[in-house]
Amino acid sequence: MKMRSAILILTLALAGCSIGRVDAPPTLFDLGLDARPVPALPARDPIALTFQSAPGLTDTGMIWRVGDSAAPRSYATYRWAASPADLVRQRITDRLSRQGAVLSDRVTLQTPQLQVSLAQFEQVFSEDGQSSQGRVLLQAVLLDGRNVVDQKRILVAAPAPTQDAEGGVAALRQATDEASDQLAQWLAATLRPPAAAASRGK
């Protein structure tokens, strides 16, 4: 009963009421500039990145839910400037490129391929509506040729500074950057050293 009441209150507060007036165009958000420092990691050879996402993350709606509710909702007057799938893929590409080239296709079969799936990208409120988190869930598989080298599940939850759409955006930006950095650190620990460096060490 308490969760139902919280969902009702949040729905009225976050969705907004448009009865009797003309709706204004929705406010658009993206993940902002990629200004967060990246981890100090060694250089690596190029990788090919393939990216996919859950079906609900190919739209521009800003998803929120209460606790572990199975009923996700979207803000009525706020949207992403592009789909979460596109925003997260671009941010991952930008941050991983600090250690080495990120390609859209394999140059050869020997080029390592990183397959990333975005499974969750949403603002999750506590049952009382007094706090929320931006949650990002990535599932990654690293391939060498046709062989699976390793796989990694990355779940990051960042606290929202305010309990509204703007707070959700800030939390999801932080969670996306942290998830990207965890992905970079996993690659650094999993991939072989760059070929040039390895040959110099012989």
Automatic annotation (TrEMBL):
Keywords: Signal. It comes from the Bacteria. InterPro entries: ABC_trans_aux (IPR005586). Residues 57-184 form the ABC-type transport auxiliary lipoprotein component domain. Residues 1-24 form the signal peptide. This is ABC-type transport auxiliary lipoprotein component domain-containing protein.
